[in-house]
Specification:
The protein has helices at 61-73, 108-116, 125-138, 158-161, 167-171, 182-195, 249-256, 262-271, 274-279, 284-292, 296-320, 330-335, 337-344, 356-361, 386-399, and strands at 2-8, 13-19, 24-32, 40-45, 50-55, 86-93, 104-105, 143-148, 204-210, 214-220, 223-227, 325-329, 368-369, 378-381. With 404 residues, it is of the alpha/beta class. The chain folds into two domains: 2-148, 2-Layer Sandwich (Nucleotidyltransferase, domain 5), CATH 3.30.420.40; 198-386, ATPase, nucleotide binding domain (Nucleotidyltransferase, domain 5). An eight-stranded mixed β-sheet has the order 5-4-3-2-1-6-8-7, with helices on both faces. The protein has a six-stranded mixed β-sheet with strand order 11-10-9-12-14-13, sandwiched between helices. A hairpin with a 4-residue loop joins strand 1 (2-8) and strand 2. Helix 1 packs across helix 3 (125-138) and helix 10 (284-292) crosses helix 11 (296-320). The two termini are 17 Å apart. Bound molecules: adenosine monophosphate. Adenosine monophosphate (AMP) binds next to helix 10 and helix 12.
Amino acid sequence: MKILVINSGSSSIKYQLFDLARRVVLASGLVERIGESAGRVRHTVVATGAEQVLNRPIVDHRDGLRRMADLLLAANSGVIATPGEIAAIGHRVVHGGEQFSQPTVITEAVKATIRDLSPFAPLHNPANLQGIDVAEEIFPEATQVAVFDTAFHQTMPAMAYRYAVPNDLYAKHGIRVYGFHGTSHWYVSKRAAAYLDASAESLNLITAHLGNGASITAVQGGMSVDTSMGFSPLDGLIMGTRSGDLDPAVVFYLSERLGMSLADIDKLLNKQSGLLGLTGANDLRDIEARAQHGDNAAQLALEMYAYRIRKYIGAYMAALGRVDALVFTAGVGENSVTVRRMVCEPLSYLGIVLDEALNRAGGSGMVTAIHSAESRVQILIIPTNEELEIAEQTAALLTAGTVS
Ligand code: AMP
C-alpha cells in the first residue's frame, strides 16, 4: 500500500512516499520558498539515492505540488507509474481544536472545520488546507486523511487544559491549552512501549521533543495528561526562536511602555526570542561550541534551556506519580549529549540516573537506553518519525474499513 504524506507549510511543502507493506520510504522531497522569486524543489528517490534539485520560482502551493507529482511520476524514477497507485494521502494539519481527537478522512465538512479553526493557527491551517485542495485535484482516487498535531493531547483533563480566566473565554472562544507535536509524542510513546516490551496502557512516560520547536508531555497509560505548549506553540520550553513560558504582563509592558505593536510583539516572541534572542544563534550546535570556548551568554542559554526542561520534568513527575521512562527525541534530544547530561545529572535524587558513557555513545538513530543500572526511571533516546506515524495512522483508517 503506497501512502503519500504531505506537510504543507506556509512557504514550504515536505513530502514522503511510503510503501507500508515493505515499511520503506520510496521517495521524499522538499519544496521551498513558495511565492518567492527564487524557489527550490529537492527530490530524492531513496532506492537509488538519486537526488534532483530544481532551482526555479514556485508560484504557489498548486505549482509546488504539481512539481512533486511530476517527480514522483517521472518515467525513470520507478516510484509510481500512475497517480492511482497512491492509496491514500496523509496530511499533517496543525490545529484540530476540540473537534478532532483522531485522524480523520477528509470531507467537505472536515475542510470547513479546519478552515473555521484557522484563527487558532493562522499561518498553518490555511497552508494545510491548500495542500489538501491541490492533492485532491492531482490524486482524485486517493483517500485524503488529516492527522492533527493537537489530537493526541485531547485526552488531557480539564484541570490541565483550562486557564484560570473567566469561563466564557473557554466556552465561547476556545481559550485553553491545546498542545502540539502530538504525532511525535504518540509515536515515541509507542516506540518506548515496544522497546520496554510493555503495553502503552501500562506505562507512565515523560516525552521530551526537543527540536527547533520543543515541547514536553506527561503520558499516562498511552494518553497525554499534560503538555508544555499551550493555546499556541509559543508556550513552555525555551526553543530556537520562541520564548516559551513568559508572564503575560511583559506583553502589556512592551505595548504600553515601549510602544510596540501586537504584530511586533508576536514577531519578537515567536521569531526573535528563545536561544536566538539569548545568543544570536538558534542552532544548539553553535551555542554548545561557543559555550565550550568560554562564551558566557551561550553558557547561560544552555543552563536556562536545561533548567526549563528540568522544571517540567519535576512538574510531570508530580502529575504522574510514577514515571517508567523519560524519552528524549527530535534534533536536540536525539543528538545533544550536553543537553541530556545537563537535564538529567541534577535529577538523580528523583531516581533519574544517567550513565554518562551510554549518553555519549547514544543517539545513533536507534532506540538507546542511557540510564545507569540503579536508575528508577529508564532514560531513552528514541528517534522520532512523524511522517511514518502519519502514514501508519492513514493506513490504519483505510484498513479499519472506515473508508467506503
Ligand atoms: P528538529 O527541529 O527536530 O529538526 O531539530 C533541529 C535542531 O536540532 C537544530 O536547530 C539543532 O539545534 C539541533 N541539533 C541537531 N543536531 C544536533 C547536534 N548534533 N547537537 C546539538 N543539537 C543538534
